[in-house]
Structures are given as C-alpha cells and as structure tokens.
Amino acid sequence: MQRRKAEPVGNIVLEVLRQQGLEAPLNEYRLIQAWTTVLGPAVERCTRDVFIRNQTLYVKLSSPALRQELMMQRTTLVSRLNAAAGAQVIVNIVFS
C-alpha cells in the first residue's frame, strides 16, 4: 500500500463543512458565543437577544446608555468579534 500526501484532520473537516454548506452557520455560532467573551459579563447581563442575518449582527440591549456607548465602538467591535470567530462573519452591528 502506498502512502499518499498526508493532510491534517482539521483541513479535512473544514473541507467537509464547506461542501455541506455548514461553514457559515458554524462561524455565526462562534461569533455569537464570542459576544460574552469579547464584551464581558457586564454587557452580557444587559443583552437580551443576539442574532445574525445577512452579515449583520443584531443585538437587543436593556440599557440605553450601554447601547449608545457600544454604537460609538461599532467598527472596533466588528473587527474584534470577527477575529474571535476566526473568519469574516459580520460587516455591521445594529443595536436596539
């Protein structure tokens, strides 16, 4: 039996996910899970709902003051959340 070019398992798994159309949902899940890690538990307590639609992250917050503060940091948050997810998942954030 001949040995063929060895490939890391991680690359194979990513290829299978890509073929099955599951890479984007996995990256979206990672980004939503990163919300608490990136912003911390204080922001998590004021967060009511987080979801992604059409490369836009929608976040419902219970604190108007926090909403205003996060709106000013929107571009930085997009970069940090995408970095935490390991892919370009979102291009915008909408706070409500």
Tell me about this structure.
The chain is α+β, with helices and mostly antiparallel strands and 96 residues long. The chain has one domain: GMP Synthetase, Chain A, domain 3 (2-Layer Sandwich). It is 58% helix and 18% strand. The chain has 5 helices and 3 strands, in the order αααββααβ. The chain has a 3-stranded mixed beta sheet. Helix 2 (23-39) crosses helix 5. It is elongated and about 65 Å long. The model has no long low-confidence stretch (mean pLDDT 88).
How many strand segments?
Answer: 3
Describe the largest sheet: 3 strands, mixed
Distance between the termini: 61 Å
- List the secondary-structure elements in sequence, H or E: HHHEEHHE
Helix content: 55-70%
- Structural Rg: 17 Å
Provide the fold topology:
Elements: H1 9-20, H2 23-39, H3 41-46, E1 47-53, E2 56-61, H4 64-72, H5 74-85, E3 92-95
Parallel strand pairs: 2-3
Antiparallel strand pairs: 1-2
Helix pairs in contact: 2-5
In a few lines, what is going on in this structure?
By secondary structure, this protein is α+β, with helices and mostly antiparallel strands. The protein contains 5 helices and 3 strands, in the order αααββααβ.
List keywords for this structure.
single chain; 96 residues; alpha+beta; GMP Synthetase, Chain A, domain 3; three-stranded mixed beta sheet; elongated
